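Q: Structure for this?
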Amino acid sequence: MAQADRRESTNNPARVAVTAAGVISPLGFGLAETLESLRRARDCVTPMMRFSVTQCRCKTAGQVSDSRLLAGDSQIPRSGRLHRASHMMIQALQQLVARQPGFEPELTVIGTTSGGMSYGERYYRSLNGAGDLRKAPTWIANYPAQKPVIDAQTAFGISAPCHVIANACASGTNAIGHAFECVRSGRYQRVLAGGYDALAEMVFVGFDSLQASTPDKCRPFDRQRSGMVLGEGAAVFALENLELARKRGAPVLAEIIGYGISTDNFHITQPEPSGIGARQAMERALTSAHVSAADVDYINAHGTATLFNDATEGKAISALFNGVPVSSTKSMMGHSLGAAGAIEAVVCLLALQHQFLPANINFTAPDEDVDLNIIANEPRSAAVSIALSNSFGFGGTNASLIMRKFEP
Amino acid sequence: MSLAIAGMGWVTPLGTGIDSVWQRLLQGEEASATPISEQLVDRVYNVFRVPESGLKEISHPRLRRASAISRFAAVAGLHALESAGLKLESQNADRIALVFAISNGGVVYTKRFYHQIVGTGAHAASPLLFPETVFNAPASHLAAILGVTGATYTLVGDGAVGLTAITMAEQLMANEALDYCLVVGSEEIDWLLCDAYRRWRLLRAAPPIEPFSTQHRGMILSEGAGAIVLARNGFVTIERAHPGGHFGRRAEAGKTLKRILCDLRESEIDFVISSANGTFVDQAEFEALQDVVPNALIYTGKPALGESVGAAGLWQIILAAQALRSKEIAPVLHTNHSLRLRLPFLPTPMPTARRAIVLSCGLNQQAAGLRMAIE
């Protein structure tokens, strides 16, 4: 597109289409399996298998099957050396490319929290005499956060420059939100966006040390909630200028119409208690989308099931919205950190496409201090035109994304 | 879109403050190496450390338990805002974005935290240390110290991440609701990092860094931070921030750099701030520079300042801005005088210099560049 055209589209914001998506999570591999798990309100949190958790309070996580993960891209050279996160990104991108073979992004924006942390752990344990250091160069080469992104792009001949955003648990939503703004401003026509994170011992123990994770089930917004469980996965989206996507005959799965970001500066691990940070992110997303709170049909909450998050997020939602249906799908798959926002954007996409409200499982009783319309335990059929997804992270970083059902 | 540098801050092993570090570079000074060791392993490395004197001025409750990486960033960020004459108050706190470039992150606390798990067990893990291991902890501290309430992004990558952060800042500034973007790059050193880079054959045991040497003897790691306030008006213009690219293998780095340089080349590029650091990067840059901008002066500050990875890109931009402002470039240290590149071996006046390229080739497959100009 000529520079003059790009400038013009800056003054007249472009509509942003989702033309393909790929997802790997404890809910399944691909959109169809994910939809099936959401429809059945499956609890995909299982006893932790990847490393010993005997000294931790929490013993469970949402885990991606290694046998399926590693079998999927054995044709890639040296795939045995790659980090699990690379395998997740490769498989998620493979799904996307299969749906949109003509998608050639100009930019890639991916969120993560842990990068290749488990390889860093192996290296450190080996240095401390607990392993063989001969593989250290492989671990070190595959440790950087950008490596899984480059591996996935290389596997499918994509050469777009990549931004890797590490805004803690908001990273995935930040990545999609920033990509959305890049397309909407007219500076880019096609952006690949998403997030990934693979379970790592250090991160698991870290949340356990903060007593943020639970020995119980993950029960977001429940009176009995006692913390989060971790998860893992990857999700990617093809975002395109809607008009150009339609011109080339690409299917439009949904539109992204708004994004809001805020920083509340209250505490490194705790949200500002009044919920101002969360509220600002949602307000900014609504403003960005040019819609009102009453237009929103579904909120996929950050909903980690920690006491602090759910109380502040609940306050912020009930202050802005009047009885909108809310669920946290982390109850089914755990919290996949940098991937969470991207996977939950897939959940919103499926809700818009298939006209249903995903459930908030393990829900026993409402918290009297949180006035929300929780979609308790079972999904519901509903007319869903606009969905909002929240992600909040350590360091007081808050992000909200708004998606709309595409009406041709 | 017009984007310009309105303020800068610099924390380096050669000291703190734009003018004082620049003067020392012009005089051909280089940082002193400090040995760094680890209790469990009998191997010593040499690094360029930031003198403690440069950090004494900063005190904030958020920094009480924070690692060096956050302290470097805070000093550089505050200096940059001060030099831009910018004071953040509640009414403009959401009109400035923060983009934080990082590579290895808070490695000191990460190692300490994981050491507790490996050495004693998960039950011994410290809830105070864990939050400092998260990539965006330094950005969070800086946002809290400055009072930024709008967009805050931590961008992770290799040595090219500082330039990628400028590209992201440019994307953010397309939104007219933003007046400024503070871009910060910061890095801290630990023995573990030295050991990792050595195992990857990128580190040498002791200085000097010999740029553009065919021997590729390796780099010396350094620490510190660089900060730049970007605005719509300023003393040096960012004419173009190239989105960059990546390369699959080291042998392909030169091709990626050539493409970036070709995209950035104008009829008159007076000088290039290169990222040559004594590793494979030098050969890739040498070929690209010789092919695309054979007449430009080439400078690298890494022999004097070391390889600061996540901070390195910001340091390169500061070097370019200073050279454009002062119409002078510092000497390249420890290099071969017979190279077929135009390298300044002494402080070199450039009275007509108007335009520069900053080129960065990272050690982990990323490359980026940008073009700057002064009226």
